[in-house]
Every structure is written in structure tokens, then in C-alpha cells.
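Why run this: before we spend reagent on co-expression, it is cheaper to look at a predicted model of the complex and decide which construct boundaries make sense. The entries below are exactly what would go into the expression plan.
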Amino acid sequence: GQQVQQSPASLVLQEGENAELQCNFSTSLNSMQWFYQRPGGSLVSLFYNPSGTKQSGRLTSTTVIKERRSSLHISSSQTTDSGTYLCAMERDTGYQNFYFGKGTSLTVIP
Amino acid sequence: EAAVTQSPRNKVAVTGGKVTLSCNQTNNHNNMYWYRQDTGHGLRLIHYSYGAGSTEKGDIPDGYKASRPSQENFSLILELATPSQTSVYFCASGEGGEQYFGPGTRLTVL
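The model came back. C-alpha cells follow.
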């Protein structure tokens, strides 16, 4: 089954609106990472967030390991935020391997 | 000065042919990974490596081999390419739970 569930699968925002993206994990994990991907592009790391809250500009990531979840908050969205947001969990297997979610496709319209 | 590079960026191969995808990293990371990304499946782990000379099977290794001749280089080899291996392939390096991705290789097997 899917180890990493992301929601929503897609989201359309008006520019300036906020967004909350969720990532839930079905198994125990060591840490997790959020990525951004443009269509046809590579993955750019947004946050490596083992636990707690991290902020970078308009982006805030909060991870609660015990509850097996992480969220990515985007405030005051801009059209350049459009793309796919992926979360990945580091498996709690003693090895540094990762499961990825299927992503949230975000479209910000002007 | 991209830290993870891949070659070729695009490749068209014939069914039954041999394909080698190359990855080079300048991060000096011990861990390297090969993923494929397909619509509806997200990113899936094919092979990974913990250091020069080591290769390990990921979640979908069938039909693929890997080679890690040095700290910097990690190759993915398709001995007998099939149309089902048409995909976008990403290489990544990682340490301490974080991953850094290359730009991807788009492979089409006809």
C-alpha cells in the first residue's frame, strides 16, 4: 500500500490566498523532506524537517513525527508557486531510504 | 556548478537494446539513488548505493542493474530495454536524511 499519502491531490488558488498541504505516513519514520517540482523539471529541496517547525520566506513546514504527519503552509501565494509539491519520508529501517508521496499539484491563478 | 548531474538528458532506445544512464555528484555523499517517475506512481526507488563498490536493490529493481565504481559516479543499466521502461529517471545523492536530485533523464524505448 501507499506509505505516504499527500492531500489534496490538486489545488487551485487565487493569487494571494494561503495553502495548506498535508503529508501522512503509514509507518514510523526517521525524518522527512519537502520538494518542489516544476513540470518537466527536477526536484528542489524546500525543507529537510525531521521534527518541529521550519520557515523560509512564505513557506512553513511542520512535522510531528509521533503523529506521522507533516504539513507545508504557503502564505500569500504567487503564480510562481505553481507546480508540484512532493513529500518524502526517510524509512525507519536503519538505512537511508525514502518513500515519496504522489504529490500535490498547485495552480495559482492571477 | 550543479552538484548532481545526469547524462544523457534525453535518450531514445530500441526494444532489446542496452541503455546506460550516468550520474555524477560533487557533494561527496556516500549515498546515491536511482528513481523513476511515472504519472500515477510518483517516484519509485530502483537501486541505491552506500558507497563505492556497493549497490542495493530498491523497490522496483527488476530489469535494471546498477554500478558504483567511485564515490562520484553511479550508473543505471538496462541490459534489455523494454517499452515499459519509458520514463523519467532521476539520480540523487544524500547524507544525514537529506537528498539532492539531478535534472533527470527522459528515456523513451520504442
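The CA atoms of residues 51 and 63 of chain A lie 5 Å apart. The interface with chain B takes residues 30-31, 33, 35, 41-45, 48, 50, 86, 88, 90, 95-98, 100-103 of chain A (CB under 8 Å). Bring this page to Monday's planning discussion.
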